[in-house]
Design goal:
- The longest helix has 17 residues.
- This protein starts with 7 loop residues before the first helix and ends with a strand.
- The protein is of the alpha/beta class.
- The chain is globular, with a radius of gyration of 25 Å.
- The chain has a nine-stranded mixed beta sheet with strand order 3-2-1-4-5-7-6-8-9, sandwiched between helices.
Length: 395
């Protein structure tokens, strides 16, 4: 952490070059004798990325930014604030705190937050930035999180963990047991330090795998931003033995699409099926990740096109957390039907369909784009069909 970066002249240079091609900056000789071009470029690149991801940081003067790798790994303000809405109490410890965005959000809900980060540089950056942000109820410890807990005689209202999803060779890993720390081996110890644990995992972790590897899972929260799943939150409560609640939330266009259910509701749901009617519904990414393929149709009284399609239909327009289309035409996926197509451009989606989007485009001679949406899927009669649609809403 080079303090020269925080000088008035350097900060002005960074702010004036946020839109400059970073490669051009790297090719120039540094204008500041105590700062390398690489250091300046790193600050410019990270601050530019923070504009949308961390608007509070971006709007605060003299923030010191970590490298782009550390910035990419931290939570966004939006997802951090959502996590904070799940907790409250007197004390909370984040044992994998990193840049501290989650701690920043927790500090508004918990009286005392402990920021524990073994990377000394990141710990120093976080401590400096929080002074600039005016946060005073966070204590900082630069050490391994599990070691901190073992050496602590305290119990906490909450423990928060965001296990690193990279192995010792810096390759991505996807199973909880391969992450660092391996929480699957530490659950009993963690419960000796707190009755409530919040774990963040990446969006690729299968829910059934997570449930098999963890215990006492009370709730699972699947968080998406603009229909892109960002993280899965696992709320554990000591001695909890019931089926967990699953909650999905998609932040889009200033709204919050929320859908929740229990695993039992999904297992016991008996779907209604129908051939395509007047309207087509595609659940948002968070719902699709949750696996509520039967229950979401039942809840909104929609008919499913096929057990494996995860597309839904109705004859009347229904408010729905996802994309809604009006079906204009339904065609068989055959050479005879293909000759009836008069569209040259379409936005193509395949669901439960043997051909890829590229193969469909080639066979139909269609290019990407336009206002027409083409869904290629299988109907309840096991026939391959093309649904030519106009999008009505993306709620």
């Amino acid at each position: 952490m080079n303090p020269e970066i925080l000088s008035k002249e350097v900060q002005a240079y960074i702010n004036n070059n946020l839109s400059t091609d970073i490669h051009k900056i790297l090719l120039k000789k540094s204008s500041f004798p105590k700062i390398s071009t690489k250091e300046i470029a790193a600050q410019i690149e990270s601050k530019a990325k923070a504009r949308n991801k961390l608007p509070t940081w971006f709007a605060t003067e003299n923030i010191f930014y970590p490298n782009k790798h550390n910035l990419s790994q931290c939570s966004s303000e939006k997802t951090a604030l959502y996590k904070a809405s799940l907790v409250s109490g007197a004390t909370m410890v984040d044992i994998t705190a990193g840049l501290g965005v989650d701690c920043w959000a927790f500090s508004d809900r918990v009286k005392q937050v402990f920021h524990v980060e073994k990377n000394t540089t990141l710990s120093r950056i976080a401590q400096y930035n929080f002074k600039k942000l005016g946060i005073a109820n966070i204590d900082f410890y630069s050490e391994d999180g599990m070691s901190f807990l073992r050496n602590s005689e305290s119990r906490y209202d909450w423990i928060y963990i965001d296990p690193s999803r990279r192995d010792e060779k810096n390759k991505k890993v996807y199973f909880l047991s391969d992450c660092e720390p391996d929480v699957t081996e530490q659950i009993e110890f963690l419960f000796s330090k707190s009755s409530r644990i919040l774990i963040k995992t990446g969006p690729l972790l299968d829910l059934s795998v997570g449930l098999n590897q963890l215990k006492s899972v009370k709730e699972i929260h699947i968080v998406a931003v603009n229909n892109d799943v960002k993280e899965i939150l696992w709320m554990l409560e000591k001695d909890f033995e019931k089926a967990p609640l699953i909650k999905t939330i998609n932040f889009k266009n200033g709204t919050e699409q929320i859908f929740k259910f229990s695993i039992g509701e999904e297992k016991s749901a008996i779907p209604m099926y129908a051939t395509p009617q007047d309207f087509l519904y595609e659940p948002n990414a968070a719902i699709l990740k949750s696996g509520a393929f039967k229950w979401v149709g039942n809840y909104f009284r929609l008919h499913k096109l096929h057990p494996n399609s995860h597309l839904y239909t109705s004859s009347e327009l229904i408010e729905f957390p996802g994309r809604i289309f009006r079906i204009q035409h339904v065609l068989d996926y055959s050479k005879k039907s293909m000759k009836k197509l008069t569209i040259s451009h379409a936005n193509i989606t395949t669901r439960n369909f043997p051909d890829s989007v590229a193969e469909v485009k080639k066979k139909l001679g269609i290019k990407d784009g336009g206002d027409t949406y083409l869904f290629c899927t299988t109907n309840i009669d096991q026939n391959l069909v093309l649904l030519i649609c106009n999008q009505l809403f993306e709620i």
